[in-house]
From TrEMBL:
Key words of the record: Apoplast, Manganese, Metal-binding, Secreted, Signal
One Pfam family matching this protein: Cupin_1
PANTHER family: GERMIN-LIKE PROTEIN SUBFAMILY 3 MEMBER 3
Residues covered by the Cupin type-1 domain: 65-211
Localization, UniProt: Secreted, Extracellular space, Apoplast
Protein name, as recorded: Germin-like protein
Membrane-spanning ranges: none
Signal peptide positions (record): 1-29
Lineage top rank: taxon: Eukaryota
Alphabetized SMART domains for the sequence: Cupin_1
Family (UniProt): Belongs to the germin family.
InterPro entries: Cupin_1, Germin, Germin_Mn-BS, RmlC-like_jellyroll, RmlC_Cupin_sf
SUPFAM superfamilies cross-referenced by the UniProt entry: RmlC-like cupins (SSF51182)
Amino acid sequence: MEFGPARVAVAFLILQVALSSLMTLASDADPEQDFCVADLASRTVVNGLVCKSPAAVTANDFVFHGLANPGNTKNAAGSSVTPAFAAQFPGLNTLGISMARLDFAQGGLVPPHTHPRATEILFVVEGSLLVGFVSTNNQLFAATVNTGDVFVFPRGLLHFELNVGKGQATAIAALNSQNPGVQAQAAALFGSGISDVVLEKAFGLSEKAVEHIKSKI
């Protein structure tokens, strides 16, 4: 069966519509009401969080105090991430946005991770950070950002933040999802129960090396 120019044009139009629909469905849904403050006590399971009754909503539902104080950076990574996602900040539910505070001890690292449902934009409040992401063709885009600078991590791509300054550092992240998701690569690969044989072959490691890495996760 031959396809003339008109039929090809129609096929491309249908493909465009289909792709547009997929792109629309791939992000947080647009809200259909003024607000939908999450009812964190509800046991109903939906794709998102159930709204509590509008009659029970108060101004306090739209206030979050959790980013005011620095997180505890006395850990192996020397960093702390304090999220303000819908699960912590119910007023964000259905609004398609969230934030997080990142605190770093000197030399602290937020290890390589992804946000499968969000693009992240990072604002450096204090200090100097080496930040970067890796594209799907394994190209690294990295830069040192200082106080007042902004860097963006495209949705779903592997990225990291390392404090390269002489003291502590702080940054604020904004994300275009109420629940961006966080998947730390090291924990996902070596702490999830994937067969040692898979890891040995994938990374060219010995059994002993795999066990050593697992002991550190």
